[in-house]
Amino acid sequence: MIPKGFFQSLTFLLTALTALTAAATYFAMQREWIPTAFAAMLWLSSILSVRKLFKRHADKISLMFDAIDNSDYAFKFAAGTRFMHDRMVNRSLNRITQIFLQAKADAIRKEKYYELILNSISTGVIAIDDRGYVSQTNSETLRILALPTLTHTDQLRRVDMKLATLIAGIRPGEKHQISFANERETVSLSIRASGMTLREKFVRIIVINDIRSELEEKEVESWIRLMRVLTHEIMNAVTPITSLSRTLLDIHGNADAEIRNGLEVICSTGRGLISFVDSYRKFTRIPMPKPSLFYVRRFIEGTVQLLVHRNRYPNIEITIRVSPDDLILHADENLIGLVMLNILKNALQAIGHEQPDGRIDLKAFCNEAEAVIIEVANNGPAIPPDEAEHIFLPFFTTREGGSGIGLSVARQIMQRSGGSIALKNAHGEKKTVFVLTFP
Questions:
Q1: Is the CB of residue 212 less than 8 Å from the CB of residue 186?
Q2: Is the distance from CB of 42 to CB of 20 less than 8 angstroms?
Q3: Fewer CB within 10 Å: C terminus or N terminus of the chain?
Q4: CA pair distance 136, 171, nearest whole angstrom
Q5: E-assigned strands of 54-161?
Q6: What are phi and psi of 170, to 5 degrees?
Q7: What is the pTM of this model?
Q8: Could you tell me if 296 and 364 are in contact, meaning their C-beta atoms sit under 8 angstroms apart?
Q9: Cβ(408)–Cβ(402) under 8 Å?
């Protein structure tokens, strides 16, 4: 929109130029050279005035855009000049500056709004250019990768070399799965890529999902189905054998000693096998949790007191730290109590009676996502890496006489409670840490 004052000034100057051109032409045709020279001088003066007018306003416009280009929105032209057309132009330019300022403020608000949405989703998102520079990421990505910041794909080498290679080379439309171990746990990721052109640059959008809990859940479901089939078939086969051998012993009590001893071996072995199989049925019969609110400190202290009463380990010191002191957990106290008893019992057995400086540290707190975390650490012999990845599998045990289902049951209880249990890798430290997470 052309300011009214500027339009009037321009109209006046153009009218004067037209009139002076006509006058100079008329006087020249009449051979009146003095009036012709005077009119020509006025004409030249008008031309210079028009040029000066355009140059002054062009300089103002150029100055305004330079200021905007340098994000100087506080720059303003004086609105109190002598000439009306200058005041009108200055006000119009100041108005344009304010429009640009408002547009930038709106863009910043939208950017913060979209960033808030991006940081609220439970999926990691990374925007990467062809040189590996990260233009955008969200907090879930940093949480999954356990990184404080991410600006280039080379930083992923600190997490895992295979992960860095995969993300650096993944192309739009591809989908991959990868697992790696960090200082806390084993991480399983699903990675997908798409592409778009942004500001004349091609950008890959990498979407990362933590699928560890889904994989664990499917694994547990598979074990439960297998256990149900095995226990059913074994019980159906062994029970009649045990019953028949007992009956034969009762009927033929005066039978040959060798036959009687054989029947007694069959009967006792069958009963032992039935007892053995029955003990594994609890792995497939965990009840659904009935959550309630309870204080974490009272719960931990009660669990420790119960275990210490049953097991005498004077060489082991147990410490409890709960922050805040009135921390509350919403879960099934009885089922979580079984999990805690199992972990603490394993910790006591790992340290044993011979280690003089045995120590078990229990710590409960809220993390940044407001999830309740319970950590159980002991300074007994560390679990070897090749065994650590199998400790939650049913029947896996390294202790003589162990059943191998304690931690499997613990993981199933935590999954049904909506939480998770993990072995935290303590590199360079002689301790084993189990982490219970309750979102």
A1: yes
A2: yes
A3: N
A4: 18
A5: 124-129, 134-137
A6: -65, 140
A7: 0.50
A8: yes
A9: no
pLDDT in tens, 320-334: 999 999 999 999 998
Q: pLDDT, tens digit, for every residue of 361-410?
A: 999 999 887 889 999 999 888 877 777 777 777 666 666 555 566 787 78
Instruction: Tell me the C-alpha distance between 64 and 67, whole Å.
Output: 5
Distance from C-alpha of 189 to C-alpha of 179, rounded to nearest angstrom: 6
Q: Which helix (H) or strand (E) holds 299?
A: helix 296-310
Peptide bond before 324: cis, by omega within 30 degrees of 0?
Answer: yes
Q: Name residue 210's beta-bridge partners.
A: 189
The tokens of 410 are what?
Answer: 């613990």
Q: Pick from 117, 13, 394: which is nearest to 230 by CA?
A: 394
Check if the beta carbon of residue 211 is closer than 8 Å to that of residue 189: yes
Write the single-letter amino acid at 17.
L
Tokens of 314: 């004077």
State residue 439's pLDDT score: 83
Output the pLDDT for position 292: 92
How far does Cα 265 stand from its chain's mean position?
Answer: 58
Structure tokens that stand for 195 in this block: 């592409």
**56-57-63-64 Cα dihedral, nearest 10 degrees:** 160
What φ, ψ does residue 129 adopt, rounded to 5°?
-90, 180
Mean pLDDT along residues 129-145 = 85
Task: Give, in degrees to the nearest 5, the angle at Cα 71 between 66 and 73.
Answer: 90
Q: Name the token pair of 201.
A: 């640059």
Nearest to 206, CA basis, from 162, 153, 157, 154: 153
DSSP letters, 94-121, are: HHHHHHHHHHHHHHHHHHHHHHHHHHHS
